[in-house]
Amino acid sequence: MIETHPNPDKAFTDAAQQITPETLGEILNSLVLRDYSGNQEFERTLEELRHEVDLIDDELIRLLAKRMGIAEEMGRYKYAHNITILQLTRWKELFADRIKKGSNAGLNTRFLADLLKLVHEQSIEIQTNVMNFPKE
Question: Which of 4, 5, 17, 35 has the largest CB neighbor count within 10 A?
Answer without folding.
Answer: 5
